[in-house]
Amino acid sequence: MTSIDANRLLAMRASILEQNSALQRAANADLGNAGQMGGTDSAKSDFGDAFKSALTSVNAAQAQSSAASEAYERGETSDIAAVMLARQQASIGFEATLQVRNKLLSAYKDIMSMPV
User: Is the overall model pTM greater than 0.70, yes or no?
Assistant: First the structure.
């Protein structure tokens, strides 16, 4: 069994205390910034903005797909590959949005069924 060096042990203790105080300072700085930025309201608005942006882009893809299909039906374009690509992009975007909605509803149900 190895002997314990007191100097090394004190150095490790000092290092741990220094790291702990640095973490506490960082946590206090983050709390101060969170109070200035709105705290959890900022996180809520970030998620809401991201979700709204995703829905807007899916809606735009669907509108572009519809416009390309109508242009092809009117004979204004003959590029069927571009039309099918736009339709598939809109379809995949919608399916992904639907899956996110299903996961959010599932998480909400799980949280609501938790005992308090």
Answer: no
